[in-house]
Specification:
Helix content is 38%, strand content 14%. It has 205 residues and is an alpha+beta fold.
Length: 205
């Protein structure tokens, strides 16, 4: 595919990869090798982290649809060869985190996927796209688990900078677009419906 035509996005936003949506791919070893190479590329290409994570979920039983999704990523990379992880001269006095989650996005398990990115000054220093280990019964719960993940990573970065004698004096700002999750973080009263995520709530506070 070295001479393939490029595309503007790494994934078809109208489709969701499923375990049984197409016929099995005939060479599982080849699929795993190709997708494994993409995993290394995500170290400097955070823009493909989500879609690579999605096709990695089907390593055990890939289908032709999953292979088409892989080719879509390659076509996207063909048109964005100049993209990468660039570090700029910037102050390191603030840490900003952004998080989002899709509720029940996996069509087979209905587990949610959490995504986040962390900026130190103007530079992206950490990012993740990972399927949650447990089911969430509401979008607020899925978002809140995502907030807990990015807060944990942000705390690790702050502690690392402290050991490097570059402590951050300002509080870390975490941006989340779910109003219910924001209310949960500031509500001192715990209800029965949020008791199962109480540890995440206390950790974030």
């Amino acid at each position: 595919m070295s001479n393939c035509s490029s595309c503007s996005t790494p994934v078809d936003i109208k489709s969701k990869l499923s375990a049984t949506s197409d016929t099995p791919f005939d060479d599982r070893t080849k699929y795993r090798s190709l997708v494994g190479a993409l995993q290394y590329l995500t170290f400097t290409r955070p823009d493909i982290s989500y879609v690579v994570q999605q096709i990695c979920l089907h390593m055990h039983a890939p289908t032709n649809e999953h292979m088409r999704a892989f080719k879509c990523i390659i076509r996207y990379l063909q048109g964005t060869l100049s993209h990468g992880l660039y570090l700029y001269n910037s102050t390191i006095d603030r840490l900003l985190s952004y998080t989002d989650a899709n509720w029940g996005g996996c069509p087979n398990t209905r587990r949610s996927t959490s995504r986040y990115c962390v900026f130190l000054g103007d530079n992206l220093v950490s990012w993740s796209s990972k399927r949650q280990s447990t089911l969430s019964r509401s979008s607020a719960e899925a978002e809140y688990r995502g907030v807990a993940n990015v807060v944990s990573d942000s705390c690790w970065i702050r502690n690392l900078l402290l050991e490097l004698h570059c402590p951050i004096q300002k509080a870390t700002l975490v941006y989340c677009d779910n109003v219910s999750a924001l209310y949960l973080s500031g509500n001192p009263v715990q209800h029965q419906c949020t008791k199962h995520i109480e540890m995440d709530i206390h950790f974030i506070r």
